[in-house]
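Anyone have tokens for 3CxxC-type domain-containing protein? Sequence:
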Amino acid sequence: MNNTAWIEDFASEIGNSGVPHGWSLHVDKNLQKKNDATYCSQRTFGSFRCLSCKRSWSSSKVFILFCMKQNHFQRRGSVAMRIFKQGCQKCTKMQEPMIHSENIERVISNVVSHIQKAFYGKENANDDRPPHTYGSLDGPHDEEHCEACQLNLCDRQMTSQETSSSLGLLSALVGVGAGALALMYLSKN
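Reply: yep, here.
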């Protein structure tokens, strides 16, 4: 993975954004979510080639986590970035994705927009730009081979967990509502 492209694109985009503080980006291959920062995540399209068995695949669900911290006293901000790997379905070795420069630019643009909204209250910042896909994609997200899923960080997992807990709450409320209606009916009769 070419970290230089990410760092240079970030420096250019943040410089053009008009934010009043200096911001920097660095790669942290061990980044995990903690409670002391602001986070955003992105999914993008990436290509993989297993270095062990030479199998190739593409994914539109390459998960990237960004941790943003601002130091008001130093008038600086920093962004830590982790691009999660995917495991080969043939030999299970974890591989880093190759991400096209166009998608690097789109992801960085989305992160800078998030910084503008979260730290500077700029509501007119750009909406998230979706990734460009190259080639065809086969099948659903392979949670078993997704490093972010294994660490319970993947957006897809959070969405399905939130959906199932929301459905549980909804069915509980419906049950309570039906019970309340039955009690109300019985008390009138």
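Residues 155-188 form the longest helix (34 residues).
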